[in-house]
Amino acid sequence: MYNDDMKKIEEKIIFSFESIKDDIYGKFGDLWELDNSFERHIKRRQILGHIDNKDDYIDKTLDCLSNSNTFIFAQHKGSWDNVCYNKSKDWAVVFNENGKMMTSYKIDTDSYLGFESRHTINNAIIKKGKTNEKFREYFKNIRS
Q1: 26-59 pLDDT, tens per residue?
Q2: Global pTM value
Q3: CA distance between the termini of the chain
Q4: N or C: which end of the chain has fewer CB within 10 A?
Q5: What is the dihedral of CA 5, 65, 48, 98, to 10 degrees?
Q6: Phi and psi torsions of 132, nearest 5°
């Protein structure tokens, strides 16, 4: 089920990427919600052995978005208003309600709690659906 909340978030995500599309590998860090968060994520993913370098991280993130099959919208009251999640195979990307990136990571299949469970425990209202084809196409074309 695709709904208006998901469509609005997808539009904001695309809008954010439009601002860096001419230099994705140089300006990818500008997409992040918090300053310096991008560099911390790169280091952490390298330590975990999930990526080789910054470009590999960016490629895995873009691949996830262009092949995303699931869009989950977790609506919170309090600390987070909304968090959305796109996943594809074994990688996930999380955005806030403004289309800013919060994280991108390899899905840990051994984890006791997945994205939905973690947010449901915190009383989030979960809405999910299939990722819009227009959204996927945007990310397939952005690297061309």
Answers
A1: 999 999 988 888 999 999 999 999 999 999 999 9
A2: 0.84
A3: 30
A4: C
A5: -40
A6: -65, 135
